[in-house]
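[Meeting: bench + compute handoff]

Bench side (C.D.) handed over the final construct sequence. Compute side (W.E.) agreed to return the predicted structure before the next meeting so the bench team could plan truncations. Sequence as handed over:
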Amino acid sequence: MAGTPGRDPWGAPRICYLLGSLLAGLLSPGAVAFNLDVMGALRKEGGPGSLFGFSVALRGQLQPRPQSWLLAGAPQALALPGQQANRTGGLFACPLSLEETDCSRVDIDRGADVQKESKENQWLGVSVQSQGPGGKIVVSTTFFFTFNIYHFY
């Protein structure tokens, strides 16, 4: 029956699908990964332990001149000077060039109030999205804390 809990519309119990998937996963060989474009592959490097490239997005800049960028998230990048933290994560902009070390950190924490915000281990750069040429960029963080200090007299 279609309304019976634990069954699909064709009548097979859900546990059969679960066990079948588990068995197929155990019997199949390991996954194989490959690069589709072996001749034009770009390699970019970030700081050690920064998880540079955890997330990436392509960005088309229109002003002041048209240019393409690779945006790379690095959730464990070292903090910028003045952030009063050790590791905050970060966003890096890399030109589409053959140079491996030409990425620069995007300073998106200007005006942060270190008295009200804790950026230690916030994992900035865990997700990076771009709207496309001339559009907006979204970079997310997993752990970001704000706090208020109340004085009672």
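W.E. noted at the follow-up: Helices lie at 14-27. C.D. will use this when planning the next construct.
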